[in-house]
Amino acid sequence: MSIQIAPSILSADFANLERDLKAIASADMVHVDVMDHHFVPNLTLGEPVVERICQVTDLPVDVHLMIEDPDRWAPEFAKLGAASVTFHMGAAHAPVRLARQLHDMGVKACFAVRPAEPVEPIFDILDEFDMILVMTVEPGFGGQKFLANQMAKTRRLRDEISRRGLDTHIQVDGGVSPSTAATVAQAGADVLVAGSAVYGAADRAAAIEAIREKATA
Ligand code: DX5
Ligand code: ZN
């Protein structure tokens, strides 16, 4: 299984986004966290900024919506040039309808679970999604401690995907660093989001490679 690294620009310098996007050119995608002060207690950026990010980066843009009413807003983000849009189990009213709508727009659809949410309810609709995001922190902020107790869930999800011969990706987000990368990869995750571990490092390319190496070792 090939590992993909998705640096999160939540930990970048928002006054120097273009510079900080160039610094992660060796990554596989860029992860953009959209927060609304309602679904999570933080507020980041919206459509105009996502649109400019899509215009200035060559990387696929992976939009992680931590917002209420993604049924209303996810298609608006999909229009801007994102490669994938992730919305949360705890916010979506009609996840299958929304996933199909995103696919009709040519955008990958991803479904996210928070640490207290079980993954089993997704099993019946797994084939509607390109990727499942297992949060390994409570969503809302960068730099939190990795929740190792999410690995059993990740393993159950990987086993179900393998059993059914699906090609669904598993993304993990929160506290991923060179020291936790092997753990998440062994549990079956193949898309690793890392914010502070990449942007907190002086050499961002080296940090990306360090995570990749640990995950593939
Ligand atoms: C948190 C966001 C993450 C965040 C991860 O809710 O979804 O993408 O940037 O940050 P780190 O890697 O620092 O835990
Ligand atoms: Zn995220």
Question: How would you portray this structure in words?
Answer:
Pathway: Carbohydrate degradation. Keywords: Carbohydrate metabolism, Isomerase, Metal-binding. With 217 residues, the protein is α/β, with parallel strands linked by helices. The protein is built from 8 helices and 8 strands; from the N terminus they run βαβαβαβαββαβαβαα. It has an 8-stranded parallel sheet. α3 packs parallel to α4. It is globular. The relative contact order is 0.17. The model has no long low-confidence stretch (mean pLDDT 98). The site of zinc ion has 6 residues, from β2.
List the helices and strands and how they pair.
Blueprint: E1 4-7, H1 17-22, E2 30-35, H2 47-56, E3 61-66, H3 70-78, E4 84-88, H4 95-104, E5 108-113, E6 131-135, H5 151-163, E7 169-173, H6 181-186, E8 191-194, H7 196-199, H8 204-216
Parallel strand pairs: 1-8, 2-3, 3-4, 4-5, 5-6, 6-7, 7-8
Helix pairs in contact: 3-4
The structure holds D-xylitol-5-phosphate and zinc ion.
The site of zinc ion has 6 residues, from strand 2.
